[in-house]
Write the structure tokens for this entry.
Amino acid sequence: MRRRLLALGCATGCLVGGCGALPGTQQRETVTVWLMQDSASADFLDRFTADFERTHPNLRLDIRVQDRTGIVTKVRKALADTSGDAPDVIEAGNTQVPLYADGGRLADPTLESMRDWGKDDWLPGLAEPGKDGNQQYGIPWYAANRVVICREDLFAEAGITRPPRTRAEWLTDTEKLDSGGDQGIYLAGQGWYTLSGFVWDEGGDLARKVDDFQWKGALDTPAALRGMDFYLRLQSLGAGPKGADEEHPPQAGVFAGGKVAQIVAVPGLAQAIVRQNPRLKGSIGYFPVPGPTAARPGAVFTGDSDLVVPRNTEDQFAATAVVGALTGAKWDTELARTMNYVPNKTSLATAVSGAEGVAAMAVGAAHGRATPNTPQWADVEADNPIKQYMTRVLNGADAATEARWASRRITGELAPDL
């Protein structure tokens, strides 16, 4: 009865906007929304809730902030819940959506995506992981990706007057910066997200779909090997550890030491750098990761969040209304400005043009990608052979041989029948 009343009171087109109260009806339906910790500020959530409940008088929001630790297990349990107490909307990491969609556990808002939400303008790195065939299960919310964080004063001292626009320029500039006790770049040996961008720029991939159901590791293709070769050359222009990732040690602390000209990271890391070394305030700059040519920036891994609607929700109409409001232009740009994110559409990038680091991030996000769109990718990352492959190559092993080994490992996790 509840669902019928809401369906009668709200035409499908008002899911993006507001619905008037039903005549003679006092009851307000509660929509439970799970959002991840630190995704949105308390002030933003208060303002959004007030506006949403004003424009949807029959609905009340119950936003519950979730700890990221153990969230995959918690969400999968909620998607299987039959008690009626499961959440109606869930924030999911963009690469987690295939895992949650597996087994038909998510509702399918493809129609709304096409008709009301402008899906053709979504950032590809957010939209693609949320898609299965022609069905769009994950609705892009906000994005973040890596840029180059640099010391503008060290660039000036080296006679570099503008950021590099191509990979060749980037190598040349980094060689100049790698002198006098300074590292041209601090690039950890296992930064596989950064490597992914170089591989994609060459036309390669981490894995490729060989038929409707099976995937095969692709690090041993000529294109992927060219991406690894560029990583090797760039990484050698600094003293990054060959056997660790960017968190061991945390690269913000290394950069704060004052002897590093560049790192590849999300721009928000600059705040941690300045906290550790206030003297660097005013000397930090940002530019998009350069591509092979000046025609477009380099490809980057695009991370962060989609919104999904569990199939077991008791009110898909109401849940879809929340998703439409949160991901619509008004509140998506407001979130981006508040939290220094990239909005979910390329056409909304001007909303963050005033923040140098976020603007550089938005340029890269327009050409962003995500990890292979399969639920089994999580198994690859659990004991990541890409990291081991990178360390072996950086320590002098033959790249083609190690790439074949890593590709076999990836295939074994994604398509054990091959």
